[in-house]
Structures are given as structure tokens and as C-alpha cells.
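SEVERITY: medium
COMPONENT: batch folding queue
REPORTER: lab tech (J.R.)

DESCRIPTION
The queue accepted two submissions in a row. Attaching both inputs and their returned C-alpha cells so the on-call engineer can compare them side by side.

ATTACHMENT 1
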Amino acid sequence: MGGDSAPPIHLSYSPALSMLFQACSRHLRDGRRCLTVSSLGLLALFALIALPRGAAAQRPLKVYISADLEGIAGVVSGDQLGPTGFEYGRAREWMTGEVLAAIAAARESGATEIVVSDSHGNGESLLIDQLPDDVRIIRSWPRPLMMMEGIDSTFAAAILIGYHSGTTNPAGVRAHTLSSATLAAVSLNGVSVPEAGISAAIAGRYGVPVVLISGDDVAVAEARQLLGDVEGAVVKRAISFHSASTMPPKAAQQLIRERVKAALARRTAFKPYIVRAPVQLDVVFKNYRPAEVLAYLPMVERTTAHSIRFTGRDIVEVSKFLEFINTYEPGIAP
């Protein structure tokens, strides 16, 4: 510290530190006091630099959970999938249990906000009175972002619970894409995609990676082939379209809890699944007339007797189109 004066020091890290150093520069005659002030200020400055960026005001960890039913442990047929099935009530409990396991794991991993999308059938399958009070739930249809409604760029991770393989896969329990009754294939930019791929593409539009998928072994393998090394919770092994070797519900829930924690612990290792815009959507129907009638729309091209093509500006526009063709009915009311 030489000389009687020194220019003031300006620090952008902390106004308090800047004041400390400027006070020191004004009182250089008292070297001991200046040394003490400077030392304390430097220590504080180094502590701030050593902390992760934003550690003082950490970004909230928001987690999005999309839940289907066909991939839930114990679910194998229509007996569990709709209100007329004799085991549908029990299946709703199993589905809710697996979602609760994912929520608990997300909380243990530091999640501050969780949105759950009830994405099976009528969109009203989860027993919402069993979910935590601070969780937000997306229910019923239609939704512009389908199974990922409510996601945006503020989320850190997406989790897919109870998903199944796609309609073009020859294996997997209840394999289908969006509609088991009407659709035979769905492709984005020439790549055949299951529901997991569509959901991941919508999440990817907002920079959010899928970090985990649960379901049968075929669904998990199919998702990994498309999305990369995401965490997987295999809760049953497919034997046929309507048969599986399944874990009991409690064991499946414990597995999901463990895998979700593992996924969120390495969430920065995952990358969003990006489908480049414009997005070419190809849909193959199981019947003739949907392709014929949709081709009346000027933005739709009929490519075969059962197929159409639609090009959207991005995956959000494609999602809205898919929701339209799967939801609209001439007699829709109110």
C-alpha cells in the first residue's frame, strides 16, 4: 500500500464491498485499519466468487410429470383402462401411487414446484385428492400441448410415468400412439414416434429434457432408442399386447422413486429432444375416410389412401393439429 491516495475501486459483485474498498482508499494514512478492512472485503469477495452463480437466490427446481395408464404396473388390458373395466378403480390407485412416488422423489431432490398432467383416456384418471396440496394438475381435454400441457421453459426436467410403446412397434402392452382406435402410425420429420417421442419433442421446444420414463421394457427401450440414455423404470415385462410379467404396485412405486432421484441427480447430463422446424407430420389412419375428409383442408396433403401430411411451423402447431384430429367431432357440444 504505497502513496497517500488511490483511485476508488468499483465492484459489481456487492455495493457493500465497493463501499469497504472505497473507504479504505480514503483512509490510507491508517495502514492497519485499511489492511483490516481490505482483508475482510477480499475474503467476502472471494466467498462470493466461490459460490455458484445465483447461489444466494437459487433458481427454483420445477419438475413436470406426465402420467399415462397403460404403462403402470399391473395394467394389461381394457379391464384396467376405462370406467367400464372391472379393475379400473384399482388401476387408478396404482397410477396415483406411481405419480406420488415420482412426486416424493422430486421433492427429495429439491423440487420447489411440480405440475402433473393426467394424460390417460378422459384425462381424469388420477385420484387428485391424494396428491399434495401444492401440486398443480392438468385434467381433461382438449389441450393445445396434449400430454404436456402446462410445460414451459421454466421447468428443469420432464418425467413420463406409465407410458407405453408406439403403434408401429410389434411388441409392448397396449402399444398405440395417441389413439388405439384410429391411428396406425405417426411420424415427425420422417421419424416414427411413440407418445414418449411426441411428449419429448414438445418439452424440447421449451428446452426441457425428458430425464425418466417408466413403463414396460419395450416402452423404455423404445424411448431410449429415440431420446438417448434417459433413466428408465421398467415396472413390467411385456409378454403380448394384453399380457405382462408385472411388479406389484408397491415395488413399482419404490423403483420409480429410486430412478427419479437418480435422474434428477444427473439432470444436467440430459439434453432436450429437438425436432427441427418446420415440422412435417405424417399420420396413417386405420380407416379410409379420415384421410379423405382431412384432405379437404388446404393445409393437408393426402399421401396415400389412409395417410395425410401436415407441415407445422413448429411442434406446438403440430401438437394442436394432432389434438384437433383426435378430438374434433361434428356434434361436439357445448
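ATTACHMENT 2
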Amino acid sequence: MRKLAVVNMKGGVGKTTTAVHLAAGLARRGARVLLIDADPQGNVAHTLRLRPTRSFEHLMTGEATLADVTLPAVRPNLDVVAATPAAFALERRLGGETQRETILARRLRHLHTPGAASPSDSPRYDAVVVDCSPAMNLLTYNALLFAEEIVVPVSMDLMAVIGARQTLQGVEQVRELWPERRLDLLAVLPTFVHSGNHATRATFDALEQDAGIASRLIRPGIRQCIDLNYSTASHQTIWEYAPKSRAAADYSNFIDFVEGTGTSSAYAQASRRETASTFRSEGVSTPADGTQTQAEI
């Protein structure tokens, strides 16, 4: 079972959008996926139009079990544990708990991969995706101590690069304090990429000059696409709202990378060719099938 956390200490980088599409994208391809919102802002529930009666807060405090707080079949193969603003109080409520940084890992210890030997009533998932709070707080530490792989979305501004660096510093602290736990950087994913924008070029330059980021940088990333705004407003994924949009193509490419369906080196080379071509033209790139649905912002 894969355990993935989507995290960046800076807000507004497309973190929840990426978490939702990572989970939904894997589910669309047949994996059983659990999406957990560990951010008290509760944007996953808004994005997918969910109205939970039990939430992440109740799971963390022990007031409810995982089964109690799980919203099943939100989409085919996709279950969700939603958060609400009530979770803002968790920092205070859990402050005196023993080993409070590992509460989430302990609450989820009975999860298993389908087909694995385990009690018949144990929840079974191929992947768990956790959407993290935009701060290195107790809830984020809980997410990182459950996860084994992290995805860091980075929007096209230098403050987001600083946020990514701070996030990776926090990850390094987790590795030092809990050396027995696996926590790998899976991908740094550029978001809101605008082909002809100088800020995009400057951000890519900064990312490629950072030794801790460059080797895990996914290019061209997620290009800016107004369909993502419309899909969120419609409480749909991009594949439901605009399956032929550039954002649908970009997130599908990212799911290819996560699944490992193609070699990472081949994907990286193709991505660099596409990005270079796009920057030269300073025009609008189209999805793989050549269709367009909205103009690039």
C-alpha cells in the first residue's frame, strides 16, 4: 500500500487540487484509494461537495473509528475522510497526548493492501493520499509520520519555492528524529505554469538550481487552465468537467509518473522537450490529443 502526502508550507500552490486529482486519478485507473484531508480548512469536502457528520477531528481524538469517519464511494474506488474547521482545535486538544506526532499512523495501522493477509474486516486500499495543512504543525507532522512518499506542489512564484525548501527542511527533521521511518520525496510538481510568463521561467530556474529539488522536478508540471477553476466550482474533478483540457492531460501525465507506467527518465526528457518548445513559442500548448477547451489565463 502506497502512503502519499501532498505538502507545501506555503498556501495557494494547488495543494488540495493536486491531492484530489492524485487520489481520483489513481482511483480512475482501478486502484482502491483513501483520500484524507488533514487540513482544517476542509477544502477537500468543498471540492467534492461532501457533508461529513464525522470527520478527521473525530478520528484524531479517538471519538470515532476510521470506519465511522470514512465517506465511502465518493467516486468509484475512492473513499474520503473529510476535515472541517473544527480540526483547528486539534493542536490544543492533542497537545498533552503521548507520542502525539504519530497519532494518525496509529489510527491507520490496520489498513492493508487488497489481497494481503490480514483480518477480514480490515480496510484495504492500494493507496492513501493525505492533503496536508500549509504549515509545519502537529497535523502535518502526523501526516509525514504516516506517509512514505511526499509530493510538493510549487506554484510559479519565488515564495512558493521558499515554501518548498522550508517543507523539505521539515522533512529532513522528521528523518533525523525518526530515522527508522521511510519518507521519500516522490515529486516536486510545478503548478499554475504559464508558458510565456517570466515568473514561470524564473521559478523553474530557481527550482533547477536547488540540488534537493532538481532531481525530483516534474516538467512541464500542471499548466495554468481556467477549467480547473470551473471544475472546482462545479465540485468535479478535471476529468469529469473537461476531460480534453490541458489540465486533464497534465494531471494524467502526472498519474503516469506516479504509477511508474513509463520510465521516469523518458518522461523527464519528453517533459523538457515540451517545456522548451512552449517557452520558445510563448504560445498556448495543447493537450496530447490536440484539443483545447479554454484559453490559457
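NOTES FROM REPORTER
The domain at 2-198 is CATH 3.40.50.300 (Rossmann fold).
No errors were logged for either attachment.
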